[in-house]
Fold this sequence. Notes:
Chain A is of the alpha+beta class. Chain A has helices spanning 2-31, 40-98, 117-123, 127-130, 135-138, 145-157, 203-220, 240-246, 250-253, 267-278, 320-356, 364-394, 407-425, 444-460, 492-496, 519-529, and strands spanning 102-106, 112-115, 161-170, 174-186, 192-201, 224-229, 235-238, 284-290, 295-304, 310-318, 401-406, 428-431, 439-442, 467-475, 478-484, 535-539, 543-551, 560-561, 575-577. Chain A has five domains: 2-82; 99-207, PAS domain (Beta-Lactamase); 221-318, 2-Layer Sandwich (Beta-Lactamase); 322-394; 401-577, Heat Shock Protein 90.
Amino acid sequence: MLKQCVVSKSLAMLVGFLFVLMTGIAGASYFFAPGFADNPALQSFFTRYLAISAAAALLAVISIRLLWNAQFKRFEERQEKILQFQQDVMDRQVELLSSNGATCILDSSGKVVAASEGLFDMLGIPSTDLVGQTLEDVVPCFKQERLRKALADAHESGKFWSGEVSGYPTPDRGHVIAEMTVIPQIDKSGENHQVLLVLSDKTQDRISETNQFLGLMLEELQEEIYVYEAESLGIRYLNQSARERCGWSVDTARKHKISETIPHFNIDLFKKHVGPLLAKEQDSATIEIRSADDVVEVVTRKMTGLDGTKLFVSSLRDLSHRSEIEAAKMQTVSMVSHELRSPLASIKGSLSLLKSGSLGELSPSVSKVVEIADRNSERLLLIVNDILDLEKIRSGKMDFSTTPIGLGALLAEAIEANQPYADRHGVDLRLSDVPENATVAVNQDRIMQVLTNLLSNAIKFSDTGDTVLLGVENEGDGWRISVTDNGPGMHEQAIAEIGKPFNQHKPLDGKKREGTGLGLTIVKQILGYHGTKLAVESTIGAGSTFSFALKSSGAAGETVSLKKFSGAAGERPRTLHS
Amino acid sequence: MLLERILHVDDDEDIRTIVQIALETIGQFELRQCSNGMTAIAEAQVFVPQLLLLDVMMPEMSGQEVRSAIEEIPGMERVKTVYVTAKAEDDFAKELRAQGAVAVITKPFDPMTLADNLRSIWAEAV
């Protein structure tokens, strides 16, 4: 701009000078022309010409001068704006740098020219490693489109940008949240060549905000939360629901112990509850406490406070409502079951009488459709029974008390019970040798249900003339019981889906088998209550083996009630051969 | 003493028909059937059954109420009761036995073997 003004001014001066020079030359040529002195008309014309020319030259110089002044004024204003802009940039930089920000400068290609140590502290990357690299190369989150655009706009249009950047992991501190400001740098010509990035660490601020939010949520939870010292049992914190139960304020609560939260606090039960936590056997402990008025579930975890004190955090949930729903659900299932079983009794009874011939001989075609109806009513009955069994297991109403029993007798009974079904399918059912002294503590009815399910499945998936083997082998401190067939085998996915309710895998031989899809679900649940799991080995085209382990038991012992185990004794890893 | 006279009470007409075939035609018992408790109590005084075969869940009087009422009839104190129920829970069957039933048969039952089952139950009970 300055250059343009100087050129304009010089040009104006030159034009004025040339104008005066040419006017002088023209005047002189007239003045020295012959007869000039004697020609008044020529003299008069020359005088007017000279005056007009001088006036025109003067006017041109003045106009150009005025124009030049206007141009110069605009240049000055632009310069003033640039200076102000740079001052703003400097002020912003000073402000940002004084707030412990981490900075770096990027050149026009986006590469880091210089980086402060503050940036190293924040990112955990040495500033020397940053120089010469683009931020995208070093910090993956800079690949985000919005950040790419912010940097491009700063370079190309001189735009400022400010926003939050998060999610870039650092070696020491995990994810960092920062506020980033992009400042375009302008050189003397007013062009953008560099960009200054200033990052201000907001991680702690966000954590504080999150903690504050979580604290509010904790206060508003319907569940009662109790935080107390593991040794002294002194209360550190109760949320609003817990304080309402106790009738304490925030400050009053801290003066009490957890044992004072309810009248008749059962300290022995409490010790039993937290014992596994103190012994580091479990991460959390759960107990259901029933009283005349309500049913509550208490889940306790051990934690370490900020001051290093060992703390227990117990959450207490009122299950009264859930128990009512469970009871209503069970009642509904039971009622539906009853309603289904009564008409089924009529259907099955009628079909049975028809099949027996006691009501007269049936023609072959009638016999055939009666057989179909009978088979399907039997299937419907099995579904009803399985649903009832599942509901009983889930609601804890299934009897799982155990008694020691000879394994040989148990397995022989299972063979005997399933022999008619095997005969119907033309399958040879065999029992391997069982050691005489083999004794297990089980619920006989439930394990019989497991064996019946496994044997009937094996029979179903066998061809006529095949053999199904009920085997026993010693394993660790117990016995592994297995049911092996020579059926089509199972894919890995089918094995993974075993136990899902109403799941019936598509047999590899394409033959359709009858079943409720609940049998193996019940098997898994029952085995879970016996502290073991179902293991499956399958060879495609050669057959499958379903097995489970049972621990040995003494010859005699008291009846024990089983609680469901989360872990499994003697679980064998699943293997596949194909 | 052989089992000869059975009083069957069930509100389901279809079940009554099947039981009639099972016990009269196949089992050759002397059978009376009622659809509710009140008529059963009246019938019991005339028929004097040896065994009550009772449905449990009936609209007006439950099987247990029918049994209690019939046992109060003079001369009927020692009548044996077998329940036929669709409620398959173990606990429920135990509860009925604890109340004095000699057996509990779960629906659906096999009509072809019902007569023989009742004879076995009777033999054990007397």
